[in-house]
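User: I'm putting together notes for a lab meeting next week and I want to include a structural view of one of the chains we've been expressing. I don't have a solved structure, so I'd like a prediction I can at least talk through. The sequence is below, exactly as it appears in our construct file.
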Amino acid sequence: MKLVFATHNQNKFKEVQLLLPSHIELLSLTDIGCDEEIPETADTIEGNARLKAEHVRVYYNMNCFADDTGLEVKSLFGEPGVYSARYAGENATSEENMDKLLKNLEFKVNRSASFKTAIALAMDHHEVLFLGVCDGVITEKRSGDKGFGYDPIFLPNDGKVTFAEMSMLEKSTIGHRGKAMRQLIHYLTV
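Assistant: Thanks for the context. Below is the predicted structure for the 190-residue chain, given as structure tokens.
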């Protein structure tokens, strides 16, 4: 089975590929020649995942799944949420996004947060949505050099280390993307 994962992000691609059964051939947007920027104009992460998956199904006529992930911080009323990748500006780096988040949390006592991943599967003219959530806290400083995005400042509940201090396998076992992916895999293999 060939399945497109609607991403150009090689870190995400590797993390997801690690979880998929070997009988599923995973292709990226680059692999199918999709170089255009797929608009993420929805106001929810579920909506953005749907937009990306549907774009590939409609314009490339291939079965596809897409994810969107947001970090929601309780004391910031859900920020950065759907704007997680561009929290500090349209072309912001992960470092700039983390800097802004840490600054906004500077005088907050409650640092609890949730990572949420929505995966939309557009397959054979229907769509299914899967959701994975990982609760934790935002640390006061960065720790670790693995992972990407907000991983160096996210400590999962009951965890001793940040996502950036975990291996890909450890992170996918307890993390939001891994939870959503296991639901997708179960759906594809049942």
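A couple of points you could mention at the meeting. The helical segments are 10-19, 45-60, 94-104, 168-174, 176-189. Residues 95 and 149 are 8 Å apart (CA to CA).

User: Perfect, that's what I needed.
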